[in-house]
Amino acid sequence: MKAYVLHNIAPITDKPLHDEDVDKPTPQAGEVLIRVRACGVCRTDLHVIEGELDPEKSTFPIIPGHQIVGEVVKLDEEQALTPTLSQRERGLKIGDRVGVAWLHGTCQQCRYCTTGKENLCDSARFTGWTEHGGYAEYVVAPADFVYSLPSALDDFQVAPLLCAGIIGYRCLRQCGIENWAGARLGLYGFGAAGHIAIQIAKARGADVYVCTRDRDRHQKLAEELGAAWVGGTVEQPPVPLDASIIFAPAGEIIPLALAALDKGGSLVLGGIHMSPTPPLEYALLYHERVIRSVANNTREDGREFLAEAAQAGITTHIERFPLDQVNEALIALKHDAIKGAAVLEVG
Question: Interhelix angle for 192-203 vs 164-174, to 10°?
Answer without folding.
Answer: 50
